[in-house]
Predict the 3D structure of the following.
Amino acid sequence: MGIELNTRTGADLAMALERVVEMRIRLFSQYPYLYVGVPEYEKEYFEAFQAKSGAMVVEALVDGAFAGLATAIPLAQDKYILKPARQLLADACLDPAALFYLGELLVEPSFQGRGVGSALLEAVRAEGKRLGFAHCCLMAVDRPLDHPSRPRHFGMPVPLWAKAGFRALKGWAFFEYPTRLPGGNVATIPNPMVFWRD
Ligand SMILES: CC(C)(COP(=O)(O)OP(=O)(O)OC[C@H]1O[C@@H](n2cnc3c(N)ncnc32)[C@H](O)[C@@H]1OP(=O)(O)O)[C@@H](O)C(=O)NCCC(=O)NCCS
């Protein structure tokens, strides 16, 4: 299986953003994120994202077919992420300016479990190094395995981060977003996020 990776930056980002928004809303609606995406908010966020220097989208193709993507940005540029994470970073003596942030890692369900996510993660890390960042980092939601919305046999992608050599900072940052609650109601609640860095 050949995985081809294409990195988009600058004006070239615009072509990828509709896909990022669509995949975010579709894949993050599932456990563990349970995110109920609002297309207007997503569009606004990603329009701002593409204007930031160092922003990128890496796309993965498998035998020519689109299989997944990752987004990344210098952490110091993303106030939405930086604000809730600031205390965790200070406690760990990490300078936000030294961190390249992997925002989304999204693999089409029919391509999952075949190494695409790992290849995208490594591509983002390599780009971060090339740009001079000391570390790559990401935030991932933390849900208990006995959460009622967890499909049977579904794990958290923790092995992916750990296998790639990422370490979790102590504690959580909290992201407020519209969340599907057990039973189906939607509420904007704080969701606990673990901060991972290499
Ligand atoms: C998480 C995700 C990106 C993984 O992509 P993938 O292409 O399936 O990952 P890989 O095939 O490269 O797997 C890498 C390793 O992580 C592990 N892994 C991946 N997803 C996992 C999951 N949901 N639960 C447990 N382990 C997982 C695999 O076991 C694999 O380890 P192995 O090679 O020792 O078996 C993909 O499942 C996805 O898009 N999920 C929905 C969106 C999401 O949660 N993104 C992550 C937060 S941004």
User: Anything to note?
Assistant: The two ends are 27 Å apart (CA to CA). The longest strand covers residues 186-197.
